[in-house]
């Protein structure tokens, strides 16, 4: 693990050099250890694919005992000590498994044919393989509630569009390179649209406001257009 300064008010912990489940587990463990009981002066701890960034208030760190000219060194030492001896409250719970019903193809997934052509498979086989895989939520980003999911079968890897769409409908399931994801709201997007779910991934009126969180496991369930419309009505 490397710890390096990020500007004058943050530290970045690098825990790996590639996106995989092992690195993800290390990132989540470090994030839990540092956020369960924040160190003096730490204002935020943010996990990403292979890193954890620790944001701090220099004045508060100095007030906690750090020499003014050694704030980074002082806090780095305490970060390392915390990771060696994490608090009991940082213990990982059992991962959630969330099933996402998806209507693939047609008006709900206009790029299913493009993915099929790239993979040299029939569209039905793309649906079968995409919905059979188990996915891991690496992080939430880009837009509130947007999950970046690892675990896409290699044969379904498809390049992003050179020219993004200006508006992707909410609930759209898409493939972008080696990842799959779900657009939580209307946003521009360059990923390949293969289906849609009626589930709401972002609800600002709820706590937490997002359906999925980093560390969750996701499985997709293929449904018919009729089932999609029924679920859509029930969700209103």
Automatic annotation (TrEMBL):
<dbReference type="InterPro" id="IPR003833">
    <property type="entry name" value="CT_C_D"/>
</dbReference>
<dbReference type="GO" id="GO:0017168">
    <property type="term" value="F:5-oxoprolinase (ATP-hydrolyzing) activity"/>
</dbReference>
<dbReference type="GO" id="GO:0005524">
    <property type="term" value="F:ATP binding"/>
</dbReference>
<protein>
    <submittedName>
        <fullName>5-oxoprolinase subunit PxpB</fullName>
        <ecNumber>3.5.2.9</ecNumber>
    </submittedName>
</protein>
<keyword id="KW-0067">ATP-binding</keyword>
<dbReference type="Pfam" id="PF02682">
    <property type="entry name" value="CT_C_D"/>
</dbReference>
<keyword id="KW-0547">Nucleotide-binding</keyword>
<dbReference type="InterPro" id="IPR010016">
    <property type="entry name" value="PxpB"/>
</dbReference>
<dbReference type="InterPro" id="IPR029000">
    <property type="entry name" value="Cyclophilin-like_dom_sf"/>
</dbReference>
<feature type="domain" description="Carboxyltransferase">
    <location>
        <begin position="1"/>
        <end position="212"/>
    </location>
</feature>
<keyword id="KW-0378">Hydrolase</keyword>
